[in-house]
Model the fold of this input.
Amino acid sequence: MIVQHWRALTGNVHPDDEPFFASALHSFNLDWPPPAYIGDVNSAPFVLLMMNGGYHPQMTPEEFPEPASVERYLDMLHNPRAVNPSSVSAYYRASNYEQYIASGRLALVNAVAYRSGKLSDEKSNCRLAKRLPSTLKHQQWLRQELIPQALAGKRVIIAHRNSMWKLRQQEHQHPNIIFTRSGASPHLPKTVLAILDRGTYVFSPGIWWIGSMMNLSGSDVQILQM
Done:
């Protein structure tokens, strides 16, 4: 669903989103293809939910030094696969989860595909983002594909910045849906990294978590259990 949606992108704005941007005041940067997702969004066993792509007036243009880099970025969206995220944006060099995206174990998906300075502080951008067809498509994908996969024990959702996803902790109490409760940090909690390192904590219906990692409901991460 989500990949098929973005395969319609040939420039910097999805055709479905164009009339919404044209008719609204906003400060989204639309000079480059949007970071809707990074990594193998179709197959990665762990999916990291984030808010939107960041924009920096100096760093972002450096990610697209020549026309070929734009084509490579579009191909990454049209044909998602494991990539070194620091080759996509220098922002990820400072993160502690870069290696998991590069290995194909983790995919990152933004609720809002387009770049801005700090969306949580941008009221007009937030109003527009909630109306964008691409945002609604991402939310639909979460509800109709990703959550059912998690409940079936096929994937794990890591909700790091979940407000734009409209995903509430009380909604699905299941161990495959992890809320980090540290969305203000660019890093994932160590407890979540431990799960990514082991790579085996994918739960099927009726199977409970047993072992030394069971008590992970501390201040930085909450594992919801059946």
